[in-house]
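Quick one from the shared queue. A colleague (R.T.) flagged UDP-glucuronate decarboxylase as missing a structural entry in our internal table.

Convert sequence to structure tokens.
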Amino acid sequence: MLKKVIISGVAGFLGTHLAETLLEDGHLVIGIDNLISGKLENIKDIHNNGFTFIQDDVCSNDFPLNPLFKDVDQIYHLASPASPKLYQKYPFETINVNTIGTKNMLEIAKSNKASIVFTSTSEVYGDPEVHPQTEEYKGNVNTWGPRACYDEAKRLGEVLCYLYYSVYGVKVKVARIFNTYSAGLANDDGRVISNFISQALSGDAITVYGDGKQTRSFCYVSDTIRALKLLMDKDEANGELINIGNPMEYHILELAHLIKRLTDSKSPITFLPLPKDDPKMRRPDISKAKELLGWEPRISIEEGLEETIKKYKAKMRINNV
């Protein structure tokens, strides 16, 4: 059935992929972005009569009153800087979009009786003392550090979702997203996979922070998008927090060597000091996603990296012409 869908943060990494997928499914999509971290070039190739783009700030007081939002069926609230490089550059904007912006999106959902997915993050677990992380784990987060503007803003966004669900009965679902990647990540994004691939293809030193023994899990973007759509469509997920990520865990140094091999790169691997509050390990328990959504990742790390590397190479050729 055709639905009217809002995507905030549409010009970002996940927003672009989600918009393209929903338009292919035949839905009407209203995409919103203030372009602080999103880029117009990400959506310039979306030529679909069902797509409307609005350059606006979801935090503005009159934002929920836009008449275009009348009779909306679904809302994906993705807007927020997501890489440490960007949320540390825009800390106040990051706090606002995940708090004021989240409240505004929840108000639109409430007034339209729409379903809403809020994309939270594995960062709410901080530097975890429980491994792997289940949704019941309360986290080990530092409020007094450079990552707090993102971690704590997402946590407060979850509180707002809880209140709108429990007080007003809004059909809200929260996705705690672990590292997602594909060629859609800008090569200057600052996240580990985009960094390593760009460095390996350019012949620059691959920079590993700390000793590289810290771990992460990596989920290919098509798997994450599929999870978000399943989450939106599942009524049983209303009022639930659900981890979305790949439970396969890799040491960062192991990832560096894998990317070096897949790119056939001669780049040396160098080591830099570990940033403050950088988590030592991160891996989702996805039992809830399996049970409630029937979801688990399909794309292996090698498959996803090979596709990402191929597209990065093509982009670099274009940029060097």
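The first helix runs from residue 13 to 24.
The first strand starts at residue 4 and ends at 8.
Added to the table.
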